[in-house]
Amino acid sequence: MERLAPERRRHLRGFLAVEGCLLIPAAADAAPGSATPLLDLASNDYLGLSHHPGVIAAARAELESSGLGAGGSRLVTGTRPVHLQLEAALAAWLGRERVLLFPSGFQANLAAVSALADRQALVCADRHVHHSLLAGVRASGARLERFAHNDLEDLERRLAQARTRQPDQRRLVLSESLFSMEGTSPDVPALAALCRRHGALLLLDEAHALGVLGPGGRGLAHGLEGVHLVSGTFGKAFGSGGAFLAGDALLGDWLLQAGGAFRYTTALAPPLAAGALAALRQIEAQPQI
User: Fold this and answer.
1) Which domains are present in the chain?
2) How many helices (H) and strands (E) does the chain have?
3) Which residue of 8, 49, 136, 203 has the fewest CB atoms within a 10 Å radius of its CB?
């Protein structure tokens, strides 16, 4: 660490919100009145719902009713009515049979990969997938192959070779519907069809697409066959915090029964769940946005 050049070291910077979108750096050693107003163009709060009065009011009401934290895992004392309401609303909105909430997107992706892959599996991951998905592969012990970014020909070649090499091997494909650092998207219908042809499971991270892309903001996987599990977060377009996985009933139950990342963690804070539910209602009410 001592050899790391000062200009390359990471630092944490605090900000003070002013008039909603104006931010002022809150450096500890800054002289009073010396801060420069900034416009935040790096936030993932795509729809500005983190400051929406209805979202804030819902979170505040849940805070008064349930308290700040859930106080336990979902399988002990952590499940609150708002968790079940949010899961049901998301399942209906996405057209999925089962949704499970997680405290963070990183945790959700870790749980998803661990549920779909094991030491005997092959995971083919887009070269630009989020670090959380790669951490999930390492935790699962599966063999990892990286295919060229959004290159379905490269992916098909790798899946075909895997079928020839080990026909009965479980194959899992990891991709995202919107890669935030590049602003690119794969051809999701073609990706899903390719996975169906080769008998591969498909986990699609829709963190940056939900709320802003697809029919009514439902993401690019909405209505497609062959997308076995969708990962989404509330910390972006929903303006809240936490995450979820959406799939069929069998996979949802498998995550509930065997997913350590779900079972052994304190449940999503009830005010965050209430805020996410209120944000979902806003997105549903204004699908054109």
Assistant:
1) 1-42 (no CATH), 50-285 (3.40.640.10)
2) 9, 10
3) 8
